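Build the 3D complex.
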Amino acid sequence: MANMVSFDRLSEEEKHARFMERIAAGEKIEADDWMPEEYRVALIKLISMHGISEIMGALPEKEWVPKAPTLRRKLGIMAKVQDEMGHGQLLLRVAEDLMKPYGKNREDIMQDLFSGDLKFHNVFHMPAPTWGDAGLIGWLVDGAAIITQTNMLHASYGPYARALQRICAEEVFHAQHGEAIIMALTEGTQEQRAMVQDAFNRWWESLLMFFGPAQASTTGSSKQDVTIKYNIRTKTNEELRQDFFSKYIPRALSIGLQLPDSTMHFDEESKMWVYQQPDWNKFKQIIKNNGPKSKERLRLRQLSYHNNEWVREALSPMNKVV
Amino acid sequence: MMTIEELHTNPAYQDALVDLLYQLADDDFIVAYRGSEWLGLAPHIEEDVAFSSISQDTMGHATMLYELLESIGEGDANALAHARKADERKNAILLEMVNGSGTYLQEPKYDWAFAVVRHYCYTLAKTIKMKSLQQSSFEPLAQLAVKINMELHYHLLHWKTWFTQLMKIPGESQERMVAAWDRVMKDMKGVLALGSYEEDLVKYNVMTNETQLMHSWMQEMQSLISNYHLPIEVRLKMNSGNGRLGEHSKDLEDALNTLSSVYRIDPTAAW
Amino acid sequence: MEAKKAFYQEYEVFSKRTYKSPFQHQFSLLAPNEEIAMVMAQENFMRREPVVDIWVVKRSEVRKLDETERFALQRLDNKQYRSTKGYGYLKKKWREYEQNMLDEKEILSWGGDGKQ
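Done.
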């Protein structure tokens, strides 16, 4: 390849071969570089879903921002939810640059969200009815997110890897913010302890679903093969779920929580956690925006989008008067 | 200069000071609460992030002020923020008003023009107060004012940018902004009001008087209006009542119910 | 629709962490104009770190290398004459004259009387 005269004159096959060479060598692909259509499409799907999930993920926690029980907790959860929005910003910027060749931008992402074409993560369709949920989301949902995101820190796509670098650094604060709320509750009154166990039970199935089904056949589609082929991530859904169990089950038990799945145990021979599968049909329904809070949260986003339409129209450089 | 230790030697000074501290703390607390309700609902994601920082800073200022009250014997800072009833609160009524119809969880129809105008007008007033308080005879407050003032530069720049841009664009944008301006003017005087201890505050050099505050505020605003050729006039009024005297609207009661809902489950528990 | 889409202009954000440090690229953001871009910059990308200065640059004003042009960045590893590497033998020579070599570390320490 070193004697190449012009990249543009290469055949598609040669471009593809060079692309695979670059990612095999650990080079990072940048936004304006040539990339296989399959790679671009997989990245757009993965990153726009990741980004919009951060934005939608701010909503269940946002519920608890004004209600947080002390001044310190009010500040902490505000900063945490702000970060979620911030992560959404970083990720959507990465997705938007990938969509540019199709003439799409953030406006289209929002429209895709409202039409149901762009899905958001299963956990953010669920209710968060108590302060215990606010803590549990911070601790375990963010914990699960850390597991999947750190798995992609070395992704072949440079802008995504760089966004994840920023995100994971902030997730460390999120995890500790969640742990702090949970520990204050488990070390507190009986009512406070019950609040945590209750939230744990409520979130258990969603946490299992978080990593997606082990095989594509379970739900009919999965991005995991393509993303592994192109060095976007390295571990399978099940490997990530097992990592999550290994890190968090012992911690949950140590602070006196009971596992919602009484059959769950670690199998010494296979070195795997054995657990009861969640209802994957329910999962399919949830991510199709048929979860308990899907409609309500979409409505919130839609309303804010429409209420502020005049601002975007007024400031559009196409209405140049300023 | 007055210190915390010497306060008890002058009860009149202490009464006036405590009243002022409640005004400052309650103003920041409730306006930061209103800001936090906006989280996730701003015109675009970048602004959501920026606005949230301002709400956090402001809640941080409220926290420092409640802690100062705690240190002069008014009780636990968290209780001061969460457990006081509406008629004990000293914030200006303008700052407790809802962001729009609906709640932050159900059908929020929030008005960005009102948010921009209210926050800009408030930040300008706060900046002027902090400037005066840097000379305060109460030393801990003078020091706090220096700190708070540091963060106000950004708040002011941020809101001024939105304010001047949206106010200048003819059509819907200007109409909404002028309408929001008129609404804010109707109660802006309440933000600059100093309550029933004004005389003592001035007498003991805790801070400057109300007339001076209003004069400075109007002067600053007037120069902005002429520099940017904005289609508005300054007319300070206090139509809805004087929050400094404990007069408040139902909006405040609703807000207090929400913001203390977890705290009230068990005020003695550690959260 | 087009007017609404145009609200989202792309800006690149650069910042300096300390007075001594060079500007560093942070990330990109969307804003309708550079004034709004400027008031978004710090809180979006530098919430937790010190900043002493910020630049925002409209993305369309940045001239970037394309993939072919980036080949122009390659060079051979035969340019020791440009660096101190090609003059390393001087150390031994100076030792013969019982002198120390004035190397990079020594020379760069001269400014400011050894104070940082």
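Chain B has one domain: 9-265.
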